[in-house]
Specification:
Strand order of the largest sheet: 2-1-3-4
CATH architecture: 2-Layer Sandwich
Number of strands: 4
């Protein structure tokens, strides 16, 4: 596990700033990797559904950061959708999991961004449990 201060610096460098949607994508990727016992970077494929515009589309950057799936390796697919989710598949076995944020998070994120700002909202997402962040798995 990356120490929190280093994680935050690396996420800032990768994404350009800290924000709740990118942090949520990071957490979704971690959950999917853990639940599947999947490798990172190679041998997996991520499909990310999200609206086409930020801030919800920032979810994809968090997924890339935690899973190592990238557009250059062609092992991540971005699908424009009203809903936000990650489906991760292990190439060799076909094992798959879909991770969906709780629907109420979108409005909470909007409120947090207005009230406490993007960095504090991101830190809040980092501190939340999986049960607080994600709906039941498929």
């Amino acid at each position: 596990m990356i120490p929190e201060a280093e994680l935050l610096d690396r996420m800032r460098d990768f994404h350009g700033h800290l924000g709740p949607w990118a942090m949520l994508g990071y957490r979704a990727g971690l959950r999917a990797i853990r639940e599947l016992g999947a490798p990172t970077h190679f041998g997996i494929h991520a499909t990310v559904h999200s609206p086409a515009q930020p801030p919800p589309s920032c979810f994809a950057d968090g997924v890339q950061f935690s899973t190592g799936c990238t557009l250059g390796k062609r092992n991540i697919e971005l699908v424009t959708d009203d809903e936000v989710s990650l489906t991760l598949t292990i190439d060799e076995s076909g094992a798959t999991i879909t991770v969906r944020p709780r629907p109420e998070l979108a409005s909470e994120f909007t409120r947090w961004l207005d009230e406490i700002g993007d960095e504090a909202a991101s830190l809040h997402v980092l501190s939340m449990s999986d049960e607080e962040l994600f709906a039941a798995e498929d």
